[in-house]
Amino acid sequence: MADDLSHSSAAGVYFAPLLPWQARAWQQLTGQYHERHLPHGLLAAGQQGIGKRAFVWRFVAYLLCHHRSDDGACGQCQSCQWLKAGTHPDLMVLPESAGVGADGGEESIKIDDIRQLQEYSQTKGHGVKIIVLDYADTLTIGAANALLKTLEEPREGIFLLLISDNPARLLPTIKSRVQSLPLAHIEQAQALDYLGQFMPSEQAGLLLAISDGAVVQAKNLLDAAWFDKRLLWLKTFVALRTGMRLPTAASDYWQKTLSLSDFIGLSRLMLAELWRVYLALPRLHTDIDTPKLLGDLPIHQNQLDNLLAVLDDVQLSVRQNLQEKLAFDKIMLQIATG
């Protein structure tokens, strides 16, 4: 629901300030580069919304810059100008649907993508050449095995940066051949201090809890089109389950209110809250009295499981050209019928 990139300008993210919790990783990598000990393969991994992609783009600019400093790229040299224009000849980003400011990552990375990567790595550049493999956990088995060859036989001056939201899905043989960056662990006090620059501390704590500690995602929540619709989603859920509203009417309303992707994201978030109520766990959305809204409405495990399955099915079907109206209709019908 929220990207790791918190900057609206695609070019600007290359030169954005370092996020506070990334200082250790930055010092480690720049130090290794100065000492000529920087590995050819690097892995930026961790949950979505911690700022790892912003870190990668910043480090890409640093490596390519002609007048870099310890703080980052200069932003003025020819290399930096190429980055700003999105035309740098020594940077390849795969898959092509990914990249700075893009969501990407919907399709798997196939062996043809890796062959393209290998061919690119053989061509001569202006200095170092960088390949960013985003959503690396979507590699097919064939692509992953092909990538191993590149990692095992790196060329001088070629750096391969892998990004993954789900590193557990990566082959152990790939993870063993790259250096993992210390980006995933963020101290709660540091996270709250950062968020406190943008919002009251009480609100920062709420958003950080909802985001499961993903600081950048927490910061972006307030601007999300769906965030202030959480209460409305719960009211729709109750109305459909009690027969107070027809699925078609609810579908028509939400089609005009949110995009399908935003509605699915909102539904997943609130479904997790319903699970917490069902399991009698502490609630995350403490600004909403979910148990009071539910009243005597029973919540069953199979009902929550079925709704999650429908959300997964709809998300997959939309990629295969299912009309959004039909997708909304299907979700509302599932909520109503359980």
Which helices and strands occur, and which strands form pairs?
Layout: H1 23-34, E1 41-45, H2 52-64, H3 78-85, E2 91-94, H4 111-122, E3 129-133, H5 141-152, E4 158-164, H6 172-175, E5 179-180, H7 188-195, H8 201-210, H9 215-221, H10 230-241, H11 247-257, H12 260-278, H13 290-294, H14 301-319, H15 324-337
In short:
The protein has 15 helices and five strands.
What is the structural class? alpha/beta
Give the biggest sheet. 5 strands, parallel
Q: How do the strands line up in the largest sheet?
A: 2-3-4-1-5
Q: DSSP helix count?
A: 15
Number of strands: 5
Strand content: 5-15%
In round numbers, the mean pLDDT is 89
Helix and strand succession? HEHHEHEHEHEHHHHHHHHH
Q: Which consecutive residue ranges, at least 5 long each, have pLDDT under 50?
A: 5-9
Radius of gyration: 22 Å
- Straight-line N-to-C gap: 25 Å
Helical residue percent band = 40-55%
Morphology call: globular
Question: Can you put this structure into words, describing what you see?
Answer:
It contains 15 helices and 5 strands. It has 338 residues and is α/β, with parallel strands linked by helices. Strands 2-3-4-1-5 form a 5-stranded parallel beta sheet, sandwiched between helices. Strand 3, helix 5 and strand 4 (158-164) form a beta-alpha-beta unit. Helix 4 (111-122) packs parallel to helix 5. The protein is globular. Mean pLDDT is 89; it is low at 5-9.
